[in-house]
Amino acid sequence: MNTTTTIERPIISKDELLAAWQGHRNLTRKVIEAFPEKELFSFNIGGMRPFSGMAMELITIAAGGMKQIVTGILEHYEETLSAIKSKADLLKAWDDTTEQINIYWPQIGPEKFHEDVNLFGEYKFPAIQNIQYFMDNEVHHRGQGYVYLRALGIEPPFFWER
Predict the structure, then answer these.
(1) pLDDT at position 83, please?
(2) How confident is the model at residue 44 (pLDDT cuts 50, 70, 90)?
(3) Distance CA 97, CA 2 (A)
(4) In a domain? residue 160
(5) Contact present, 135 and 18 (Cβ < 8 Å)
(6) What is the pLDDT of residues 1-33, one digit of tens each?
(7) How many H helices and E strands in the chain?
(8) Which domain holds residue 124?
């Protein structure tokens, strides 16, 4: 009797998921860099926030969300955000958040992705769904940043250059 064992490979690995997210973060960083200093903090269309406000939201969600998924600790980032006064400050906070993601990511075991996390005390979903939300929200706000840059006469970075 001959038996064959099939090992099923997931469609996307944990490392591939992180690489996709970091690719998005790299592209969003390029969008931040493309803004002139003043317009980053002041320009808006249709009453939407300036892009700096959107980027600060993304920082809070990614840094705070990852920490909460791994440790269960809900951290508030008002102090970090209030220190952001320039494009350089925003880019530093962005890079610090990327480093936090890199620190917390390896601490998420396979089973943790499927455990419910009441993220920020409001969004009770499995960790994987919250992480997917982090990415979806970033793509959404980056799209708004592209519109702002075009309205300012600035060519945004190519969306495929992550």
Answers:
(1) 87
(2) very high
(3) 52
(4) no
(5) no
(6) 666 666 677 788 999 999 999 999 999 999 999
(7) 6, 2
(8) 21-151
